[in-house]
Amino acid sequence: MLDLKLPQFPNTELHIALFEEVANVAELRDNVANLPYSFIDARSVVSKEQLLSAIYRALIEKQYNKLRTMTLHSEFILCLSPNSNIGESFKKFGLKEDSKAVIVLKATTPDETFDKEELLSLMHGKEVEFSNEKLLSYADINLIKKNYKLTGFEPESDEDLSAALVHAIQLRGL
């Protein structure tokens, strides 16, 4: 699990976990609105930078009272998307029926606590290291290129692909 505070948002702590072989995706999907987490299909993420770009964008939206969704956790998923359609964002980046690798994101403020044991009991899967290497092993590059409308784009490296995705996230809505 990756626990971090972003220097620009010192009152928010982030907890990011990656699970594989998740067996209760249907249950999680049914209860996603009632759970204080973001659940992201790992096939749609290639790097920590891509995810952190969406997190930064969502935190900025929150800071300026511009959230488009009901919660910060749903805003994280919207901010992964290169467009502003909330429903489409959840279809492309949220849990799918066949999701097996899942990124779980929890944001807390100083008056909130994070219970890792609660998260571990919720997830029926194996927690693995949250790293670029692991993310790349789950990433569906063709799906990602389709989601971000990068047809014809052939990155020279994983870093080039990650940069293109970060740019798409930052340019959304401009």
From TrEMBL:
Any coiled-coil regions, as ranges: none
Compartments reported by the entry: Nucleus
Gene3D superfamilies registered for this protein in UniProt: CGI121/TPRKB
Nucleus listed as a keyword: yes
InterPro entries: CGI121/TPRKB, CGI121/TPRKB_sf
Domain of life: Eukaryota
UniProt keyword terms in alphabetical order: Nucleus, tRNA processing
Main function: Component of the EKC/KEOPS complex that is required for the formation of a threonylcarbamoyl group on adenosine at position 37 (t(6)A37) in tRNAs that read codons beginning with adenine. The complex is probably involved in the transfer of the threonylcarbamoyl moiety of threonylcarbamoyl-AMP (TC-AMP) to the N6 group of A37. CGI121 acts as an allosteric effector that regulates the t(6)A activity of the complex. The EKC/KEOPS complex also promotes both telomere uncapping and telomere elongation. The complex is required for efficient recruitment of transcriptional coactivators.
Primary location class: nucleus
SUPFAM superfamilies per the UniProt record, alphabetical: PF0523-like
One GO process term, biological-process aspect: tRNA threonylcarbamoyladenosine modification
Protein name stated in the entry: EKC/KEOPS complex subunit CGI121
Any one Gene Ontology cellular component term annotated for this protein: EKC/KEOPS complex
Signal sequence, start to end: none
Family: Belongs to the CGI121/TPRKB family.
